[in-house]
Design a protein that fits this description.
This protein has helices spanning 7-10, 36-39, 43-53, 63-74, 79-89, 93-100, 122-126, 129-140, 175-185, and strands at 114-119, 145-150, 162-164, 167-169. With 209 residues, it is an alpha+beta fold. Helix 5 crosses helix 6 (93-100). It binds FE2/S2 (inorganic) cluster.
Amino acid sequence: MTPVDGAGASNPNLPVDRAVTVGREPSSSPEQIPQLAEVDCPPELQERIEALMARYPERKSASIPALWAVQERYGWCTPEGIRQAAAVMRVTPAYLESVASFYDLLHTSRVGAHRIEVCTNISCWMRGGDELLDAFRAAAEGEDVFVTGFECLGACDIAPMASIDQRYFGPLVPGEAQTAIDQLLSEDAVLPEKSLERRPLAGDTEVPR
Ligand code: FES
């Protein structure tokens, strides 16, 4: 291919800059948008994604919640689930894969039946977040539980904290990691006294008249 503006264009003794070329052709055909009839999308998933798309003027804006819906159904963003979502959204699977691979909370491979994110950002780190993460990792050893450190989960007031299957718990001590995982695996309520959703909110207390 003839260089048009690279080093080799003006000086034949210099190597040709292959990045500076025109008329480059893709090496394969563009990916097609799958048809709904091809992908066997479960009706509930299709309805959910269509409802999500209806919330936005641009259907691609629903990509993250649509991928979340796929992950909730299959446990992770499976290639099959991504093709189903792509067919409903009328985008290419590659587009949704690029979104899914960008976000830490979306998984493009199977990670485990349960997911625990332990915050190790500043407030949690100062109150023992690293030790808490180590304790969860040790307690999850050999179990179908994915444990990872995470940046601020926005619940610094209960530091150090963890998200366990999308529910927030804190403040936690390392000794509670094993208890939490045992309860999770036996489908008991996890650390009810540390559950953020069970904490009273401002206004919950009855004001004496
Ligand atoms: S630093 Fe841990 S939730 Fe904010």
